[in-house]
Amino acid sequence: MTAPKIEHEERIADVRNSFADAVGRARYSDETTVLTSRGKRVAVIVGMDFYERALAALGEQRVLATPES
Predict the structure, then answer these.
(1) In sequence order, which residues have a C-beta less than 8 Å from that of residue 35 and are 6 or more positions away?
(2) Are the beta carbons of 44 and 19 closer than 8 angstroms?
(3) Residue 33: how many CA atoms within 13 Å on its side-chain side?
(4) How far apart are CA 13 and CA 49, in angstroms?
(5) Res 69: pLDDT
(6) Alpha-carbon span 40 to 26, nearest angstrom
(7) End-to-end distance of the chain based on CA atoms, in angstroms?
(8) Could you read off the pLDDT of 23-34 as tens digits, one per residue?
(9) How big is the CA angle at 22 (ends 16 and 28), to the nearest 5 degrees?
(10) What is the spatial distance between Cα 35 and Cα 46, in angstroms, rounded to a whole number?
(11) pLDDT at res. 68
(12) Which entry of 11, 16, 32, 60 is 20 to 30 Å from 40 by CA?
C-alpha cells in the first residue's frame, strides 16, 4: 500500500499570488494543490511524474497543442 498523498486546497485567486509555491510543492514534494473557484474544486496542480503515470495508467497519450497564430 502506498502512503497517503498530501493535498492542499486553495482558491484560484490566492494561487495567482503564490503560483511558484504550488508548482514547487508539486515538483519537489510530490504534493498536489486542488484549485477551487466559488467553493467548487475545478483543477489540480500535480507533478509531471504523477501526470505521466496517470496517463499511462489510463492508456492515454499526451499530444502537445500547436501554438495559436
Answers:
(1) 10, 11, 12, 15, 41, 42, 43, 44, 45
(2) no
(3) 21
(4) 26
(5) 64
(6) 21
(7) 47
(8) 999 999 999 999
(9) 155
(10) 11
(11) 82
(12) 60
What pLDDT is stored for residue 2 in this prediction? 75
Q: Which residue has the cell 504523477?
A: 50
Amino acid found at 63: V
Which ranges of the chain have pLDDT less than 50?
none
Q: What are phi and psi of 62, to 5 degrees?
A: -85, 130
Instruction: Name the nearest CA neighbour of 35 among 19, 49, 52.
Output: 19
Q: What are the Cα distances from residue 11, in Å, to 8, 25, 29, 31, 40?
A: 10, 16, 20, 16, 9
